[in-house]
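Loading example: each entry is read as two labelled lines plus one structure line.
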Amino acid sequence: MWSLLKIELYKIFKRPRTYIAFGAAAAIVFLFQAGLRFDGKSYLDLMLSNIDDAFDFDDSFKDRLLNGYFICFGILNILLIQMPLLVALVAGDAIAGEANMGTLRLALIRPVSRTQYLLVKFLASVIYTLILLIWLAVLALFGSMLLFGVNDMTVFRAGGIEVISSGDVLWRYFAAFGYAAVALTAVAALAFLLSVFAENSIGPIVAAMSIVVVFTILSEMNIPIYDKTIRPYLFTTHMVAWKGFFYVKSTEEGITINGSVGNLPAILKSLSVLVIYIASFLAAAIWVFRKKDILS
Amino acid sequence: MKRIILLTVPFTFFMLSLRAQTAEEIIALVKQKSDKVNDYEAKGKLKTNVVFIKAPVATVKVYFKKPDKLRIKNEKGISFIPKGSVNVNLGNIFAGNASYDIIDGGKEPGTGLRIIKLLPQEENAEVVLSTLYIDEKQLLIKKAKTTTKENGTFELEMTYGKYAEYGLADKVIFSFNTKDYKLPKGVTFDYDDGTKKEDKNKLKNKKGKIEITYSGYSINKGVPDSVFE
């Protein structure tokens, strides 16, 4: 199994297109960091415009607010919406790519069961996803910490502002990245399932991307009829729950409680929905693949 | 006649000593007390209590320099400091040579604090009206309400301790008007975690408060102007 996994990982990382995702992630992170480095205060002016007649926001306040933790949160908000597309590039190619090259039948001649083969392929896709996330963490979190320093983290929400003590932030990022890994694995599982049906990798990649885009739009639309009927069942609704780690509880007086999470049960519920999706997609992929007549 | 004079003079002095001080006299004495402080640097803990802000307790330094410079600095972290916080130092009410009309408002029922209103004579003054609640015996301002042209109404509540002789409080609660806070979801990328939302009407026009509990003052040791830039 291990040697099979090594082969699959070698195949993934040998392909130049694998690195498109790493390059795209690096470019977005760099552009975001550069933009805020040179014109971050204008961005903050927009965020603070609602209350700037009630509070004093001098340059030193803005410099502190514009710290590595704040920047990384902004990057993740933008990038974690795009990441599924990058993950689909590899996971959608996992089986369909072999079929396209005519190597699938050959690969299955080896004394490995179809289930085992599929699990190894899926595991390789998951490892790729994790490495991509680690790359993102290094650039977005540690890179921003290095460039902008650290301070208390301010989270702007539609109905209020939450300030988290600097010592209480890092573990939230680790939790959020852990959650994002599960969320992206769900996308990988979807692309992987679609890959089983196709003979060409373009199909499952585009199909997975389309499903993610349509579901994301449905998840983000604030149309009451969808709120209770469709939204709770879409995996894309639950993919953004990583943000919940940055929402904190407070005392009656509005003092933030260190180590608290606003609504942990909601995050755990979303996490379990994603796990169910992963298991269902993977089980369906195995079921289809075991019955499939492999001709290429 | 001699007898009458001998009886009248001590009685007159006795009556004069019993006479309540006029509002002008009280203000002069309070001002005299606050004039002892040319500058100070104070350490303290700041609690922010604004309906749309959740923030940790911050360690702050408060710098003051005559006539009316005041700066609250969070040395490390992030604190939302309200505009008009310069009024945290009550000496600012008497700052400069501004002249004002003094109106005696009598005593506050219950507390017995003397209510004195200050009306600036200058037409373009930022402060429209200051109402002070003064402990006449200690010559300390316990409460103050200041109405400004630009920044609404501020309220102050002071608790005094070992720096009372300088008229400096150990604890100040500064209340100010806040507006409704709202940012579009598209800007904040907000995620609905299912937490019950506060009633929107409750959030509107609520007073915000900051509470500073001072741990110590360093008085008249000099504060550089650069601190206030």
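Residues 22-220 of chain B form a domain with the outer membrane lipoprotein receptor (LolB), chain A fold (CATH 2.50.20).
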